[in-house]
User: Fold this.
Amino acid sequence: MSLAIRSTLRLWLLGLAVLLSWPACAQQAKDSRQSSYELMTPEIQAMQANPDSNPAAFWLLDGQALWSEQHGSERKSCASCHGDAAKTMKGVAASFPKLQRGRLTSLEEQVNQCRTTHLELPSVSHESKTSLALTTYIAAQSKGMPIQVEATPAAMTQVETGRLMFEQRMGQLNLSCAQCHDQRAGLKLGGSSIPQAHPTGYPIYRLEWQSMGSLERRLRNCMIGVRAEPFAFDSTEIKQLEAFLMWRARGMLIETPGVRP
Amino acid sequence: MSKTSRSLVTMPSQAKQGDIIDIKVIVQHDMESGFRRDEQGSIIPRDILRGFLCTYNGTEVFRADLHPGTGANPMIVFSTVATETGTFEFTWTGDNDYLAKTTSQLTVT
Assistant:
């Protein structure tokens, strides 16, 4: 009897020890992923964090104005279908690009599609002020929300194709995205830190561009850097690469509008 | 080209007499330098802000000249002494008859 009690007690103690050591294990397996915000200088971090100094404020204000601007024969605006963006657009940008009727669609394409079909407007180019104002305004509604990628087989096929592109060497410099952003993240390229390349802050205000810019612009920027022919805006390839980057950053928090040097 | 005239002013709304207050202004403007070319190779005409003026109850307290080397969406931070309750007026002037004005109130106790 006493032996049985003792062995039960031992089992309990063992269980307790496992439970107590659990947080330590969990801490070891802490997410090593990091937003490039952490690599920025305190000045640029302050610029992003402070709404009074974040230059994206102008695009946000423009986007807010465009949201309720009426167009077309029916005098419709974004707001007539979607209502208050602060409510209806919450979390929307955290899951783009995504499959819409079997086609991988970027947020920019979605905005254009809405504007051309419902507002009867001509489509706007990817890096136009209108497109950036609206996508910045929409994406900013997801600030603080985790990136979510639907894990359906069809969506994962796109993600896996994107992964191949991420690992594919390209250009005259014969470099892949992964060689810098997976294997050498945290090291320096020239004077700049190599970030892990998580798309948490897009569209971003880049000081070098003196403007907002989309994730696709940033990706094309890197491809030009390795002297590859960049994927065209809204091409299937660039959207698959975006889909992989979103999947790779799943669960990380959206910080749009980001500021980068 | 930026045809809107959005500007943001950050300053305290209240201050004690004699306090030094910090004022931060940021304005939306492309600051097109006139040295860049478009995709067809032709020069993009210059369109920049040329001047910034801040008055405090009508008295000039800060002025700046801007040049083609200034980046887009310029931010200017300066300070002044809170002397009396009143209005700050911020005026931006630039090429192509650009004019943007905003005002802020300061209550001095």
Observations:
- The mean pLDDT of chain A is 89.
